[in-house]
Amino acid sequence: MKPYIEMTDEELNEELVQLKKEYKKIQALGLHLDMSRGKPCQDQLDLSMAMMDVLNSDSDLTCDDGTDCRNYGALTGISEARELIGDMMENNPKDIIIYGNSSLNVMFDTISRAWTHGIMGNTPWGKLDEVKFLCPVPGYDRHFAITEYFGIKMIPVMMTPTGPDMDVVEKLVAEDEAIKGIWCVPKYSNPQGISYSDATVRRFARLKPAAADFRIFWDNAYGVHHLYDDNQDYLIEILAECKRAGNPDLVYKFSSTSKITFPGSGIAALATSPNNMDDFTKHLRIQTIGHDKVNQLRHVRFFKDIHGLTEHMRKHADILRPKFEAVENTLEEDLAGLDVGTWTKPLGGYFIMFDSLPGCAKDIVSRCKKAGVVMTGAGATWPYGLDPNDSNIRIAPTFPSLNDLKSAIKVFTLCVRISSAKKILADRKEAA
Amino acid sequence: MKPYIEMTDEELNEELVQLKKEYKKIQALGLHLDMSRGKPCQDQLDLSMAMMDVLNSDSDLTCDDGTDCRNYGALTGISEARELIGDMMENNPKDIIIYGNSSLNVMFDTISRAWTHGIMGNTPWGKLDEVKFLCPVPGYDRHFAITEYFGIKMIPVMMTPTGPDMDVVEKLVAEDEAIKGIWCVPKYSNPQGISYSDATVRRFARLKPAAADFRIFWDNAYGVHHLYDDNQDYLIEILAECKRAGNPDLVYKFSSTSKITFPGSGIAALATSPNNMDDFTKHLRIQTIGHDKVNQLRHVRFFKDIHGLTEHMRKHADILRPKFEAVENTLEEDLAGLDVGTWTKPLGGYFIMFDSLPGCAKDIVSRCKKAGVVMTGAGATWPYGLDPNDSNIRIAPTFPSLNDLKSAIKVFTLCVRISSAKKILADRKEAA
């Protein structure tokens, strides 16, 4: 087929008649399919059911260092968990704090702490007239929700295929002391699925922020979430790079096992410099007596070591790879050559990013919904939900079964086509 | 023996010679005993080991309402956990949020939220010139640590055998808008082990605070932690009483299973009014995607219902009762008639409170330490660690084995006697 834009009004109208017939047929099916959130599917969850067996009433719940995991103590986590997660995050166990079940919660608390107590002796953010964060866009809506909740002004910075536009990042952080942070999902990014290039990471580690309390919020949520054995993204380890660059305190790095074992019942972690660590533990010591050590031990005994965890992730990949490929194939089959959108082909992570013609994203998502397919809300990938082009859509292929996913993505491409054809016709009418 | 105060200098000096001999003997034993924290002992932890068996790889981890506990969702907790904890807290499940592993963390976050966002539309506390909390004393050091961390001015209010001095509480909250909260451990209080009387709870529910955002922080940590089957304290349920009094939003009530199953691996909960609930969930929705539902399910399937939990608590009582009685008996045997201190005889909870002669607490604790017995730091039961009489000592009998405890408390009474005799002699010398 030829690009829609090259079709005559008549051709487009004919196309629309066909598409709408298809749409009506699909509506009659009464689908209930959800591609909105980055949730593992049941088959993925089943991979970790054996973790429910590693501890039983005969188990000795004592750690290597003699700590009884069943009692209070070990504020920063048990040593074997810090070691395993250290291997996973590529950090020294001593630079790691094991938290509770949610890395998002750690990020929230980190900003809350900066707000009430300040970072390493600097003025609490709550006492400042204005606090700003750089938000690479498209990005992760739950990050933006945290900064919005604290009234932090969010400044979008465009993502490129190698990460955020570093010319802009370098310039802004250097000239504006009110800029206190930047949200990053550096590997298999949400929603693009791309990974920051070596040059990008190098430049991050060498930022010269005007604010002494500027921090990079490095949410490495998908660090080990590859789709392919032989074709993986490698990311420069940011803490080490910051240390080499003489900026050891520049970054907070977050991770969790949420999409490795069970979302909500995994373990979350922070890796950062000794100075930052002091800052975190001063706060943590008041906030809690400690996190769930039994669950830490359960994870360690389940995986044994980083090789065990890596093998476990290969099983996830076997489930997810066909789903990502199904989406990409359908997008290719149904949309290639029409010039109505572009999309990414990630090597890992949880998302595929779709960019429609300007002004179509909301309409596409709304049409999908009316046909029983729930997508992430259009605009969600931008701060305040405001996508200036109304073009960005996050596709989350993990949760539905492969069959459901195939149905859902067909509905999606159909809606993209309808919406695009209508938009082109409307634009022409307006221009006439 | 006769009261020390009635002894002559000579008699006291003779007594001291004997006591110091004993002390030297004990020091030679090289004891390492810990009565400092409210930690369950190993036998208590063993009671919950069967909880490690209730979920295994064949288990269906689906909730009654169809929620898969292994995936994201159920922000306020799974319905069966809210029901069980509702029965435990004597509250409607719909008024309950199940949190993570630590109620202290929920209290911290609650103050942090009030600090950054304010309570129910009121000015964030961080924007006020001064924020004050009433602190019933002696009280719980970790409560005081939170308020101190936020720079909240702590005002001590004396505890009586029926709870805080309500004349003072009523007066202060009515006249000072800067007073935003009060810390309470209403049942088997920390450290007294007493429970608030009906009149006290009634008066709490009828407080007329000057501040619209004043809240009672009702930490019902020991609600089901009885020592005796047939002799238990009953506490008026505060939420219901507040509702009856027309002050439904006055209280935040906290609890957890920390000292029921495993400290650090239990589940924590909040009970409060629908208005407060809205306030909490608005915040929670941004802070996290949800808490550990697998652990919630594990607890529910272990206890089955409130009767199961009650029977479980009887087993804790069987372990703890002899410990409390051993402490009380030794205090009685070694100190009765000497007029060198008073102590409580709780029917539940985790602590016995000892009050020495004024000016002796620090010395007693220090002497104990030098003989290998660690007590809670003297002063810890007062805000800022400042006990104006230097007389209050918290005894935590739960963690050591019964034999160790018996040795430890003998050391304690010995140190009380040494310290008291020396103090009386010193006072006389000074007066002379």
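qc> DSSP finds 13 helices and 13 strands in chain A.
qc> done
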